[in-house]
């Protein structure tokens, strides 16, 4: 993979770019307002070689795109007359250096001009710091990751698999007996898809049976390869998600009555994190397993794949042996990864609820033969030019939320931006028919006190268990029964303020004892916010502070295998208290009772969107409570975000 300049060299004194005054004013203004960083200015100066002001500003725009987790800058989508999205108010302020122009580009400058400039520039091209692909500009590292990923996924999907299709069809009928109540059994189709391709994706909303389907798939695969059982590994991006996957697979195995104990034993039920599987090399961003030292496995299942960023996915795929099968599981509509990219949603582009995915004619025939005795249930409709279209399975029916459940309906209303369904949920909830959903729109009556009081009441349960000397596992189990989620960090409705208020309320009730000079106390729940590869504690891990047998205060964690791990608070990597967590951090977790608070309208324009609210709702297992101004909910439903990426384009015919 090609290199781009090391950060240290950016701190060398740059020579001042010789640009017209108005563009310098604009640059000063953007720096002063923290819209751009000095480090980006230096990088852009270096890469443009002070030759062309346009290239300098285009690189700045690329830096901004990357800070928003886009993989690239889509040149056709830039507003060249106002590329930094300045508003009218930026020009009418009374203080500071007010720019006289919103754009450093000449009038009429457009994407084609940008492409022409970049195509002939020294810094752009193979093995150069920047790359162009299909009218998108990349830092080379990310272009290389995308390219690696696309090439490997395609190779895996095209590999010829030696499968006994008669046996596969029999097994599918055995595991998915005909059900007159279901027209097309999408779980059966998903199994057929994943059994016949080296790469597949199984996506679906909460409770649509992803784990059930993959458990049956693994039983089917082991039956197909009976003479030489497959080595199967299960992974998830976080410890929490891995623990959940282990639990779900174990539950799904127990429910599988059709299979023998011998076969069950060949289906693993212990998942690990991706980092653990790849083996982290301390103090580097490299892994022990890579293309030169591939993993030893035949099948890899990645759950919660929407949380996996581009770079990790590329590294994982590079570490797979050539013969391995890869199956991605997840909900395409959840928030994209914290880091750059949106691999899962890129691969699932175009899937629509209620519609058959765009399979080719040959694939429809193959799946109809395998699943439906040649009855043409699947019909090729729209032609897809996406080369992996035949590898994608979409589960659409939720088995967890029945018609009496509001959580599923609310998630559907938000995900499809359907105000009719939302109205239905509101009505059913008011009239008591949906008793799993509480919608508190009463934002005017200052619901914070109520929210804090409710949270304190719920948290009393695990704190009482600590006092009663319950086991670490019991305390952790009780803690995860309830979780308050917030969309933002700052402000009255943000994580920081709510955490302090709940802590104060618990202190006032005598449930915890917080001393002003001590950061840590018995009962404090914490979330790690930084990976520590030495201690094997990772961003998102949750611990609770308790006394150990010798009376020492320890942070106690339960790892994905269910083992207790104790750390002295002084040794912990960066962490925060977690009576409230951001919706981002809750991804991959599930709570029996989930409460979610959205900020008031004036704070909500930034960062509140459909994927965020949908992710929050779908964390709830039994009860979901929303505290929000209804206008903010509507605003979120109307705003769907997507990340710039070229992955889909690289996988087109
Ligand atoms: N075909 C089916 N018929 C009846 N029940 C089913 C079927 N498939 C799944 N279920 C049940 O629905 C529930 C959810 O299934 P499962 O855990 O497999 O879904 P999931 O998509 O993995 O959920 P999530 O990712 O939201 O946890 C389970 O209780 C499971 O037993």
UniProtKB/TrEMBL annotation:
Enzyme Commission (EC) number: 5.6.2.3
Assigned protein family: Belongs to the RecD family.
Further remarks about this protein from its record: In the RecBCD complex, RecB has a slow 3'-5' helicase, an exonuclease activity and loads RecA onto ssDNA, RecD has a fast 5'-3' helicase activity, while RecC stimulates the ATPase and processivity of the RecB helicase and contributes to recognition of the Chi site.
Gene Ontology biological process: double-strand break repair via homologous recombination
Keywords assigned by UniProt, alphabetized: ATP-binding, DNA damage, DNA repair, DNA-binding, Exonuclease, Helicase, Hydrolase, Isomerase, Nuclease, Nucleotide-binding
Known function: A helicase/nuclease that prepares dsDNA breaks (DSB) for recombinational DNA repair. Binds to DSBs and unwinds DNA via a highly rapid and processive ATP-dependent bidirectional helicase activity. Unwinds dsDNA until it encounters a Chi (crossover hotspot instigator) sequence from the 3' direction. Cuts ssDNA a few nucleotides 3' to the Chi site. The properties and activities of the enzyme are changed at Chi. The Chi-altered holoenzyme produces a long 3'-ssDNA overhang and facilitates RecA-binding to the ssDNA for homologous DNA recombination and repair.
Organism: Pseudoalteromonas espejiana
SUPFAM superfamilies reported in the protein's UniProt record: P-loop containing nucleoside triphosphate hydrolases
Residues annotated as binding ATP: 204-211
GO cellular component assignments: exodeoxyribonuclease V complex
CDD domains: DEXSc_RecD-like (cd17933), SF1_C_RecD (cd18809)
Keyword ATP-binding applies: yes
Official protein name in the record: RecBCD enzyme subunit RecD
AAA+ ATPase domain sequence ranges: 196-411
Subunit organization: Heterotrimer of RecB, RecC and RecD. All subunits contribute to DNA-binding.
One Pfam family in the UniProt entry: UvrD_C_2
GO molecular function term, any single one: 5'-3' DNA helicase activity
Family matches, as Gene3D superfamilies: P-loop containing nucleotide triphosphate hydrolases, RecBCD complex, subunit RecD, N-terminal domain
Catalytic activity of the protein: ATP + H2O = ADP + phosphate + H(+)
């Amino acid at each position: 993979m090609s290199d781009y300049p090391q950060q240290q060299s950016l701190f060398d004194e740059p020579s001042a770019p010789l640009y017209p005054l108005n563009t310098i004013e604009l640059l000063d203004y953007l720096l002063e307002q923290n819209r751009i960083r000095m480090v980006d200015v230096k990088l852009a100066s270096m890469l443009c070689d002070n030759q062309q002001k346009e290239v300098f500003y285009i690189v700045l725009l690329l830096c901004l795109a990357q800070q928003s987790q886009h993989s690239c800058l889509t040149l056709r989508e830039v507003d060249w007359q106002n590329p930094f999205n300045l508003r009218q108010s930026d020009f009418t302020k009374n203080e500071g250096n007010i720019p006289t122009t919103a754009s450093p580009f000449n009038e009429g400058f457009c994407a084609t001009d940008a492409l022409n400039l970049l195509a002939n520039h020294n810094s752009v091209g193979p093995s150069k710091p920047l790359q162009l692909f299909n009218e998108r500009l990349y830092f080379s590292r990310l272009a290389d990751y995308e390219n690696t990923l696309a090439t490997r996924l395609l190779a895996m999907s095209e590999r010829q698999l030696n499968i006994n299709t008669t046996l596969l069809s029999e097994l599918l009928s055995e595991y998915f007996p005909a059900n007159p109540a279901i027209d097309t059994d999408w779980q059966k189709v998903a199994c057929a898809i994943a059994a016949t391709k080296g790469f597949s994706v199984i996506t679906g909303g909460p409770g649509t049976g992803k784990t059930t389907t993959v458990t049956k798939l693994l039983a089917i695969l082991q039956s197909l390869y009976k003479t030489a059982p497959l080595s199967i590994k299960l992974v998830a991006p976080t410890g929490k998600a891995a623990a959940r996957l282990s639990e779900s697979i174990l539950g799904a195995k127990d429910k599988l009555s059709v299979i023998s104990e011998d076969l069950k034993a060949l289906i693993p039920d212990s998942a690990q994190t991706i980092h653990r599987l790849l083996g982290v090399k301390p103090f580097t961003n490299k892994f022990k397993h890579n293309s030169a030292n591939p993993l030893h496995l035949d099948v890899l299942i990645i759950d919660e794949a929407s949380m996996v960023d581009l770079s990790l996915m590329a590294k994982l795929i590079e570490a797979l042996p050539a013969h391995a099968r890869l199956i991605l599981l997840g909900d395409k509509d959840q928030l994209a990864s914290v880091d750059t990219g949106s691999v899962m949603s890129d691969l699932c582009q175009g899937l629509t609820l209620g519609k058959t995915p765009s399979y080719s004619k040959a694939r429809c025939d193959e799946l109809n033969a395998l699943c439906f005795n040649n009855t043409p249930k699947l019909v090729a409709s729209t032609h897809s030019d996406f080369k992996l279209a035949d590898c994608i399975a979409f589960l659409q029916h939720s088995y967890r939320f029945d018609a009496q459940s509001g959580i599923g309906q609310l998630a559907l209303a938000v995900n499809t931006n359907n105000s009719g369904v939302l109205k239905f949920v509101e009505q059913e909830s008011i009239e008591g028919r949906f008793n799993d959903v509480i919608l508190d729109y009463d934002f005017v009556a200052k619901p914070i006190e109520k929210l804090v009081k409710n949270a304190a009441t719920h948290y009393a349960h695990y704190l009482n268990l600590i006092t009663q000397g319950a086991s670490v596992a019991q305390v952790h189990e009780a803690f995860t029964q309830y979780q308050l989620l917030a969309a933002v960090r700052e402000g009255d409705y943000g994580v920081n303020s709510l955490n302090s208020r709940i802590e104060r309320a618990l202190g006032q009730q005598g449930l915890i004892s917080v001393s002003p000079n001590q950061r840590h106390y018995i009962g404090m729940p914490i979330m790690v916010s930084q990976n520590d590869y030495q201690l094997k504690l990772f961003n998102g891990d949750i611990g609770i502070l308790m006394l150990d047998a010798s009376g020492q205060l320890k942070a106690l964690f339960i790892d994905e295998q269910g083992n207790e791990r104790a750390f002295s608070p002084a040794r912990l990597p960066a962490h925060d208290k977690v009576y409230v967590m951001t919706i981002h951090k809750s991804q991959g977790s599930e709570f029996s009772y989930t409460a979610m608070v959205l900020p008031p309208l004036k704070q909500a324009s930034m960062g509140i969107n459909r994927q965020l609210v949908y992710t929050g709702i779908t964390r709830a297992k039994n009860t979901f409570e929303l505290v929000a101004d209804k206008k903010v909910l509507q605003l979120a439903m109307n705003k769907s975000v997507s990340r710039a990426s070229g992955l889909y384009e690289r996988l087109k015919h």
